[in-house]
Write a structure and sequence with these properties.
alpha+beta; two-stranded antiparallel sheet; 3 helices; elongated
């Protein structure tokens, strides 16, 4: 937007909107989230990540159908270690 505003004799895009957009981009760049460090919830039985929640707040596994049988891992690496350990033991 700034590029086209600089090329034209008059601003093509409203300069207030361009400034608001620049501030929004700056705010989103500052809020970097490391998704690898977030907790991971999986089914206790099949270790699948496909969990559904019904209107009563019950956690239902989308693969095996178990209800409220979940395990919460600290991060994705911990989940993957457990998943690979179970997978290799079969």
């Amino acid at each position: 937007m700034e590029y086209y505003n600089n090329l034209a004799p008059f601003p093509v895009f409203d300069t207030g909107i361009v400034q608001d957009l620049k501030e929004f981009i700056k705010m989103t760049e500052e809020d970097k989230v490391d998704y690898d460090d977030l907790p991971v919830a999986s089914c206790k039985h099949c270790l699948d990540l496909f969990l559904l929640e019904d209107e009563a707040g019950n956690d239902i596994c989308g693969r095996c159908g178990s209800v409220n049988e979940i395990v919460i891992f600290d991060n994705i690496e911990e989940y993957l270690e457990e998943y690979n350990r179970i997978k290799n033991s079969i």
